[in-house]
Automatic annotation (TrEMBL):
It holds the Pfam family PMM. GO terms for cellular component: cytosol. Belongs to the eukaryotic PMM family. This is Phosphomannomutase. It comes from Pleomassaria siparia CBS 279.74. Its main location: cytoplasm. Its EC number is 5.4.2.8. Alpha-D-mannose 1-phosphate binds at R33, R138, R149, R156, S194, D196. Involved in the synthesis of the GDP-mannose and dolichol-phosphate-mannose required for a number of critical mannosyl transfer reactions. Homodimer. It is found in: Cytoplasm. Mg(2+) binds at D24, D26, D231, Y243, D245, T248. Keywords: Cytoplasm, Isomerase, Magnesium, Metal-binding.
Amino acid sequence: MAAAAAIYPPLNERPIKNTIVLFDVDETLTISRQLASPAMLQLLSELRQKVAIGYVGGSDFAKQQEQLGSAEVNVTSLFDFCFSENGLTAFRLGEKLASTSFIGWIGEEKYKKLVTWILHYIADLDIPIKRGTFVEFRNGMINVSPIGRNASVAERNDFTAYDTEHNIRPKMVAELQKAFPDLGLTYSIGGQISFDIFPNGWDKTYCLNHVEAEKSREDGVDYTTIHFFGDKTYEGGNDWEIYSDPRTVGHSVKNPEDTYAQIKELFF
Ligand SMILES: [Mg+2]
């Protein structure tokens, strides 16, 4: 692949100075959960000759390696900055930066209180069926499901309908907010059967910490222009916070084709 073999100027010698371009992954660089097109990878490689480039995705690194890289190509060779899990896991020029975890941030004591409360609440919850895995412990968050993540597709569909009528998840989130007003946690209801709990600010803006840290490096770059391209840029969408952040220039795209066209227009 052309992109893997290309050689790029050092970050502080890119022709368009002090500029980095960040991309969401799903529906921005690739169709959701699918692979990036060769044309998109080629364009990114050409763009990288001019500015620093990076992706910022909510999923973990393995998922982005699968979508943007290949068996022969490590995704960290295709971008200057790789921000997985919104930057909790990060690579700079192929090297791993310090990573962050939910448990490291919250600490065992507070976590124990939180998860104990959740398990009690679910135990006392009167819903038609319960399965298994009510709390899934992940690197950057916990995922809570009143029915349990082991539910089958049919059981998930039934729960979604039940939840729409009875507000099981919204009520549980409201009770959690009441029980733990001082933990600084964000509750995000998404998908069919669960919701995520993570620290305030651990959305895509988290990766801007890494971008801002660049200026403190020897030969580092002070990125005064940070472009961001994403598809879910509306309020409540997972690109909203970074798109609307005063530190970025936000670009809203409809799909990867639109990203391609906007990049062409802006930089070529
Ligand atoms: Mg997206």
